[in-house]
Amino acid sequence: MKNLIDKHVSFYKRTPMNIIRLCSKEINWDTPLIAIQGPKGVGKSTMMRQYIRQHYAVSDRSVLYCSCDGAYFASHTLLDLAEQFYKLGGKHLFLDEIHKYPNWSREIKEIYDLYESEMRIVISGSSLLSLQQGDADLSRRCVKHDIQGLSFREFLYFFKGIDLPKYTLEQIFDNPWPIAEQVHEKCRPLQFFQEYLQYGYYPYHLQIKDAVDYYSTIESTVSYIIDDELPRICKVDVSNTRKIKALVNILAVSVPYDVDIKRLSIQSALQRATILEYLNDLDKAKILQLLYSDYYNAKKMQKPDKILMDNSNMLYALASQPVNIGTVRETFAVNQLSQGHLVEYGKSKGDFLVDGKYTLEVGGADKDYSQIADIPNSYILADDMEYPYGHKLPLWMLGFLY
């Protein structure tokens, strides 16, 4: 136990406090059991340690942070840890990388049942983490928070020192002009938007100044998810991980028109059913975004209508040739909208349908209304625009949703 405490103190002292995400303040940390989920690299571990630094002294032994991939767990169980921690007066236990501990859900359930009224537990893990595993159903006990990378608004705040509020989608569509004016009072958003699209999504950009190293880190993250997390969490055949990487690289350079599963099968040397299964895993892992024209009626193994990379930074990092600007725009739009909104493929009526209400067309500044004329609640989201014009809005405004 002393070794875990020493590591806790070391993490405490080394935790940076220069980027504290707004979403951290929206979590009720007094909830008995919290799960923080998200793709590798978006700052889950840092968020947990920052909360500890903000609310506990370094000498306070009522709180403990530890990573479940540590050597301690080679000879001890989570139950052992919780029991010892409780006996020493522990009240707030933070368990990072929970998905690396075998049968974690059963033991977390038991810890919760034993100490529910006396100990708060925070777990963090991969986006692939399931809170419903066998008999140990945690979904009724656990409050889940999904974390994704920085929004354009957060990028402006953390990297450029420009503090602006977030807006709802309804505010942006119903009253865009005052929002655009408020933003322009503090900055020229187009001055920074392209930088964000290429380098601003992951918080570690603050520590990695070189673009090559930044993209190498993203590539390493994707490789880790495919090589480690997919086989361990999703039971993916290890022999197929190279083919999955090939599939991802193919998609990174493809202009995402209608999805051709047969062509992808030939190019990646994977069977059709296997590809559909892996596409769903990659979507859960936040490497891809799968879009359907009818989300609620889409079957589990139904082919998606459109496939995009999860975020524009990942697109730039993985593409082996110059990226298509139209793909970048759509990737950004879906990525920002997916935080709190349902995005469906628009088929013949616009590019996307949001929340079953808003029809959106994404393009450049010269994009016209021909494809969405006479459709209620329809808007153009255009790149290279500073101010809105009627129902034609600057694309960058979606970066203020969170």
General shape: globular
What percent of residues adopt helix (DSSP H or I)?
40-55%
Number of DSSP helical runs: 15
* Unreliable parts: none
Give the strand line-up of the largest sheet: 2-3-4-1-7
> Radius of gyration in whole Å, from Cα?
22 Å
Care to count the β-strands?
A: 14
Order of helices and strands: HHEHEHEHEEEEHHHHHHHHEEHHEEEEE
Roughly what is the average pLDDT, rounded to an integer? 93
What's the N-to-C terminus distance?
A: 39 Å
What's the number of structural domains?
2
Summarize, please.
This protein is an alpha/beta fold. The chain has helices at residues 2-14, 22-25, 44-55, 78-87, 104-115, 152-160, 169-174, 176-184, 190-199, 211-233, 241-253, 261-268, 272-284, 312-318, 325-337, and strands at residues 33-37, 63-67, 92-96, 120-125, 132-133, 136-137, 143-146, 288-291, 306-309, 343-345, 352-354, 358-363, 378-382, 392-394. The strands form 4 sheets. A 5-stranded parallel β-sheet has the order 2-3-4-1-7. A 5-stranded mixed β-sheet has the order 10-11-12-13-14, covered by helices on one side.
Tell me what you see in this structure:
- It is a single chain.
- The chain is globular, with a radius of gyration of 22 Å.
- A five-stranded parallel β-sheet has the order 2-3-4-1-7.
- The chain has 402 residues and is of the alpha/beta class.
- The longest helix is centred in the middle third of the chain and has 23 residues, at 211-233.
- It has helices at residues 2-14, 22-25, 44-55, 78-87, 104-115, 152-160, 169-174, 176-184, 190-199, 211-233, 241-253, 261-268, 272-284, 312-318, 325-337; strands at residues 33-37, 63-67, 92-96, 120-125, 132-133, 136-137, 143-146, 288-291, 306-309, 343-345, 352-354, 358-363, 378-382, 392-394.
- Strand 2 (63-67), helix 4 (78-87) and strand 3 form a beta-alpha-beta unit.
- The protein folds into two domains: 2-146, 3-Layer(aba) Sandwich (Rossmann fold); 152-400, no CATH class.
- 40% of the residues are buried.
